[in-house]
Amino acid sequence: MLVSALLTSVGINFGLCVLFWTLYSCLRKQPANYNVYAPRLLSEGRSEGSGTFRLERLLPSPGWVRRAWKSSEEELLSSSGLDAVVFMRIITFSLRVFTLAGVIGVFILLPVNFSGDQLQDVNFANLTSDSLDIFTISNVKNGSKRLWAHFCAIYVLTIFVCFLLYNEYKYVSSKRISYFLSSKPQPHQFTILVRSVPVSAGTSVSNSVERFFKEYHPTTYLSHVVVYRTNKLRYLINDTKKLYKSLIHLRKEPAAAKFQCSGFFGLFKGKGDLVDHYEKKLENLEENLRLEQSDVSLAGEEVRAAFVSFKSRYGAAVALHMQQSDNPTQWVTEQAPEPHDVYWPLFSESFMRRWISQLVVLVACILLTALFLIPVVFVQGLANLSQLEVWLPFLKNILSIAFVSQVVTGYLPNLILQLFLMMIPPIMKFLSSVQGHISNSENIKSACNKVLWFTIWNIYFANVLSGSAFAQISIFFEPKNIPARLAVAVPAQASFFIAYVVTSGWTSTSTELFRLLPLICSLIRKLFTENTDDEFKAPSFPYHGAIPRVLFFGLLGITYFFLAPLILPFLLVYFCLAYAIYSNQFINVYAPKYETAGKFWPIVHNSVIFSLLLMHAIAVGIFTLKRLPLASSLIFPLPILTLIFNAYCRKRFLPIFKAYSAETFIKKDREDPNDAMTAEFFDKLATAYRDPVLLPVQYSSDSGSQNRPLLSLVED
Amino acid sequence: MLVSALLTSVGINFGLCVLFWTLYSCLRKQPANYNVYAPRLLSEGRSEGSGTFRLERLLPSPGWVRRAWKSSEEELLSSSGLDAVVFMRIITFSLRVFTLAGVIGVFILLPVNFSGDQLQDVNFANLTSDSLDIFTISNVKNGSKRLWAHFCAIYVLTIFVCFLLYNEYKYVSSKRISYFLSSKPQPHQFTILVRSVPVSAGTSVSNSVERFFKEYHPTTYLSHVVVYRTNKLRYLINDTKKLYKSLIHLRKEPAAAKFQCSGFFGLFKGKGDLVDHYEKKLENLEENLRLEQSDVSLAGEEVRAAFVSFKSRYGAAVALHMQQSDNPTQWVTEQAPEPHDVYWPLFSESFMRRWISQLVVLVACILLTALFLIPVVFVQGLANLSQLEVWLPFLKNILSIAFVSQVVTGYLPNLILQLFLMMIPPIMKFLSSVQGHISNSENIKSACNKVLWFTIWNIYFANVLSGSAFAQISIFFEPKNIPARLAVAVPAQASFFIAYVVTSGWTSTSTELFRLLPLICSLIRKLFTENTDDEFKAPSFPYHGAIPRVLFFGLLGITYFFLAPLILPFLLVYFCLAYAIYSNQFINVYAPKYETAGKFWPIVHNSVIFSLLLMHAIAVGIFTLKRLPLASSLIFPLPILTLIFNAYCRKRFLPIFKAYSAETFIKKDREDPNDAMTAEFFDKLATAYRDPVLLPVQYSSDSGSQNRPLLSLVED
């Protein structure tokens, strides 16, 4: 890539960013857009806007940037929970790493690279003085003593990153503990999920559970809730809710519009008839629903699982950690998630079916990750110029314009790839949900991991090791050749990834600020429907999409740090943008839905360790290639030390993210006051884990105002 | 190999076996050999022999075989513990497997192989009708439909083995639980070991432990014993004991012998002087010892570890399974071993030193296993004929005799290999003891695993994949080629391994019966010393040597089952011999020292699963080689199903071997009567885990009669 090309790309993307930011600064102040740009404030009833028009509403103002940049961690913790804090810490961690890396890279490595003359010596035919390659390590003379600068830089960065990683792990785990210690009593702290309850003939699951826990945990056992098979009920409720919505819609609409509609199609009955018809249908459905509900709870579509609550957190923890039964496949215990975090559809599946679907999901994920690019390349091949002209002949004239055809051939394949990539987080989330996690937050966490490895494989390795998917995979069957192959392939893609940081990093993050997709959706909805404020809910933050993206830029930065330090300033800009934007979005847009209390951090740690190891592997290859075998051998202790460091961290910190300690539980238990509040909490605890579909139907997800059964609403 | 050669080998080894058995049947009845052939009975005071001479003592009698063969599992369980039962079950398990395999192999596969004519068609130059190869799968025509017989046999055997494995795992784990339920209260059931106790300045380890457990386990905590750094003391005690022995020896010896001795050297003093000198030295040593003992316990060479006892088994289990502290590297808990099973020297090492030695041991084991044959081959090369003639010129005439030189060249390398191999179990046990296990039984278990993989690598793979060690290892870097390489190499070694079963299996096991080495040692001892009955102790069974050997024959049988079914009858004979011999040895020779309560079984299970997978890999290769690709592909589900079966067993049974369940603990706790016996037990529990070197010195390992302090003995 040429410097001029890079500058063009930077210019275009900088322009786009400025455009997005300006538009955002304007649009966010329009009350009509509050549901896009401040849904959280709106749902909390805190949106500040008044309907009155003022001139400043049309002028972009940068106040939000200052507010976002200055928002403190305590504020974030209290408003969005520990997960949001962890996410922001990924960004500040990256900022720290790449500040040091940037200083070393730009002021030491870049001059060293630039002053080398390897590339001029070799004198490639196509080398101009404009080439970006003169800023990379390729330009340093083979066997040159100057390569020791790179060698030292690798050591310094590794030590610095490990030091930061250790501190961050320590900080996050202490936060996790203090978060637990400062939390109010919550149902999931007192509850475990028991699965594979053995049932002897003649007794119910409920009886078995009660007998077992009264026998073996007599002093701590409080109550239990058996899980029911409710898939059928779930479908019925969905149908009812849909019908109810149509009915409400029909009632609210002005009579004219309806008559017009029914007149237009001619086949429909008048408004009165339609409403009557719907009401009858709804009544029938409700009758069914009630029957089914009582059926489920009485006749016993019991799943062999139950949420068992205890009188103390420590009691629950003991039951969780001890193997309960002589047969380890029975009475399998698991930490219960928060009540609203339970992923209910899962419980309907039998054990065998869940086990098989786990295997299937595993295979599907591996296949999707390894072979993703094959269909994408195929579709990109279909969408070339001549195919478009065949399919859409009316475009022929337009496509014959040189500029248009260039844009189409240049951008269309990229657009297709981006569209496919956008589908990955939802797909991975879906796969995770099939896999057998009992809570939504676990699904998200698992999807986060899957998306991360998918991204690393399909963006990093697919670009670096160009060739067929099988040729790529084959590299792992010859572990000895990995450094050599990486050393050749990785530096060659330096300019591609610099451009990637600018386009995908800068612009995509600004799109996240601008919320292009929700904006379009909102506009379309406004055009076609009128009642916009029913069922309005702030979205939850898509950790499974955002964390892998940030981590991937970290990987890029670490592996290209000594190869092509030119990438670092661009990355720094990216992380600054990301900090401001995500901080702002946490304040205005996303509301926390579930809390994992920092369980995302181990994923971050592993990813950074992997980046370091990858950097070391590339360094070994590079120094061999550059005929500095001594440096190549002296790098070897580094990955080993990094692995030992990682092993230590796994031992020191990881258990804290799996479970709290006896010390913590007992401390917390002793803090609980012995008053009416606590008694009330324990009363509530007994029913906290009832399946929502077995409760009286609510037609709105808002729990407050519209929480009355339907019939009363129909009858009034 | 030719049939005649095999018959010769069988003949020689059969003769040796008969000789050993006859000799054993005679010698065991001589009272002089009781310490070799019935040390267990002797040490228990149950040896039946009288000093009077009877003629029948000189005649061999087979009564012991009947007795050994008929001894029931209950008897074995009560006399030698669950570990012995598990060991015998390995043999009965193998007998069952190879009975079915033998029937299929000899009556179906052998005729099929024999009736093939592939080898005659190819007509090797050196093929005679006498060759053993016509009994192997190599003789079946390429692409022949008859290979489906082998295919079916593989499926049948795999299913049968998995069925048996499941039943055995189930049986052993139920035995383990019932063994626990029927056991008397034992200190290790109530005790855990706590390591990495954090100590704040000004307090001792003991105070820290007490404060922590009184705070967080107030209802169940009973007492604790802090571990001290006692290496110095251990050396002192050893010195004292040695000196004491010499003194006793000196006193007992007739005066004549001593004067002769001291006269002979001229430098020694008379008997009286010598005894005085020794007594003085001993008194000094004892003084030192007492000072050191009080030093250790007072001034505090405390290790940051303690044995903590609880009032109930369940209380101990809860403390064991819960993470105790917010910092997972502190208050690390571990199940305590039986008090006499604790491996005390270990505790003197610091945490870092133990961690490093773990790494070192790991590397040492891998190197030893992978590169063992290199020095062996080198030594074997040194010990050839011409070298011997150079070193020992007086042998020249003898070595020039053709027969002698043949024996030397044929047997000497083999002998050297055997000598080296004999050193492996002790070496592995030593390495395990350095590794950081806290009990002797853990050391043995770990050594058992190491020896098993060592045997499989250095006998199986080294023979099959002949070539340099590095060439062998390289096979694992090309996983795709494993089946093809095995398919070529494994059948070629069939006759070698048949001979191996006969020589190493039959004769070595008979040597175990005959106890050649202890017999020789005993004879030598009798020749040079006179007092033979002091410090007499029955040896404990060398599980780390015996289990890998039996498992290795199982591996041979399973992998050669369909390749060369001729091996199966020989294996069956081996397992019958082993059953009779080991059963007899458990009755007469070995006394149980530690009890792991069946923890060896998971090793057995894993080894058999590995054998099955290896067989499948070879089968895939063979069917490809024999041009029956369909069979080759249809084998593929088999390893996958085997792995799934293994995964299920790991989930279903393995946890039982790690820890008992809450159910079991609570049941057992409720059974304890609330009487004086129990109170006495709890009193003893408080001191059960004191380091033996801190107790008053005992000069004999017999705890009964000679349990008085030395000075009293010196003074009387």
Describe this structure in words.
Chains A, B: It is found in: Membrane. Chains A, B: Residues 5-168 form the CSC1/OSCA1-like N-terminal transmembrane domain. Chains A, B: Residues 358-623 form the CSC1/OSCA1-like 7TM region domain. Two copies of one chain form a homodimer. In chain A, strands 2-3-1-4 form a four-stranded antiparallel beta sheet, sandwiched between helices. In chain A, helix 5 runs antiparallel to helix 25, helix 19 runs parallel beside helix 24 and helix 22 (494-514) runs parallel beside helix 25. The first copy, chain A, contains 32 helices and four strands. With 716 residues, chain A is mainly alpha-helical. The radius of gyration of chain A is 30 Å and the shape is globular. Chain A has three domains: 3-113 and 146-183 and 448-662, no CATH class; 187-351 and 667-715, no CATH class; 352-436, no CATH class. Chain A has helices spanning 3-27, 34-37, 39-43, 63-70, 73-115, 118-122, 147-181, 205-216, 231-252, 255-265, 271-300, 313-321, 351-371, 373-382, 385-391, 396-399, 402-422, 424-435, 440-464, 469-474, 482-492, 494-514, 516-528, 543-560, 567-588, 601-625, 629-635, 637-652, 654-658, 662-671, 676-688, 710-715, and strands at 191-195, 221-228, 302-310, 332-335. Chain A binds chain B through residues 177, 215-216, 317-319, 321-329, 477-480, 651-656, 659-664, 666, and chain B through 177, 215-216, 317-319, 321-329, 477-480, 651-656, 659-664, 666.
